[in-house]
Design brief:
The chain is an all-alpha fold and about 150 residues long. The chain has one domain: AhpD-like, CATH 1.20.1290. It is built from 8 helices and no strands. Helix 2 crosses helix 3, helix 3 crosses helix 8 and helix 7 crosses helix 8. It is globular. It starts with a helix and ends in a 7-residue tail after the last helix. About 25% of the residues are buried.
Amino acid sequence: MSWIVQECSSREAIMARLPQLGEPFLAMFESLWEQPHVPGPVLELCRLRMAQLHRSEGDQAQAVVPVDAVRRAALRDWHRSPLFTEAERACLEFTEIYAMDALAITDAQAEAVKTHYGDVGLVALVQSLGVFDGLQRLGLIWRTSKQEA
């Protein structure tokens, strides 16, 4: 697989070498931000928190949706910070467990997300987290210096 990453400095460049995989996957990533069930800024907080947990500096530096610098800085301490809403907290808690062990997500954590975004919102969040997780892990495996979605 070294031929895939050879002379590529970004995840986008690597995906371009794999058009049958890369193009649909990147299109799916873009579609996450267009769905109406979980707001883009909430998804961005979840994507950033997952990047922190994965220690993916490239993904942490990226800004798909603008997030206030103060909230971005407080993200590591989201559970104690007054800067986050209850809906955001529910999604961030879900994200943390998903990033560590998706099978450990409790019914209560899923219900907390559904309280704010409904069943469809929970599904949208789970799908989004799957894409974020996959892209971030690929970036870490491929050791891309500049990780773009």
